[in-house]
Amino acid sequence: MNSKATVLHEAEFNPKIKSYLLWFSSFILLITVVGIVVLPLWWIFGTFYLNKYFERLECELTSRSLRFKKGYIFHTEKTIPLDKIQDLTFKEGPLLKSFGLSILRVETAGSSAQGGPDLSLIGIVNASDFRQMVLDQRDVVTDNKSSSTPSSGEATSTTELLTDIRDSLLRIEGKIDSGNSDID
Length: 184
Known about the structure:
Elements: E1 7-10, H1 16-30, H2 33-55, E2 58-62, E3 65-70, E4 76-81, E5 85-91, H3 94-98, E6 103-108, H4 111-114, E7 119-122, H5 127-147, H6 152-183
Helix pairs in contact: 1-2
């Protein structure tokens, strides 16, 4: 398992993400009282921030995991092993559709207990193809793990080893018990 995972595909992000995030954030700021005051500053500095944010977006499908990096001020890097992925879900709303974008949500076994997805990828180019590549590679990884169960020869040697350990423990117990009866 020390071998380094090979990168199978690097996802591309649609540059329209910048416009979508600018308008979505502006809408959120507009519906809040404090946000109305901040809105002009967001339009001035938000464009710069979103350009830097977009430059740092990365998503790679490797032979063993899905890696995602984002952030300009707050850097986030997440690696999800493929065998832990349960589902990949698409989400499109009216605003996303108007920008030609979709959200790909990655859910793992633990994410359902938290109440949300483990990872949300906005604006991947050819998201349905990327989704299929991830699912196909997940199937390859999980098929390899299930086929790596111990063979009958390995199981027999393990059983013999456990039997030898049990017999040794019984001999030790017998000596301890006989030693205690000599003391009484």
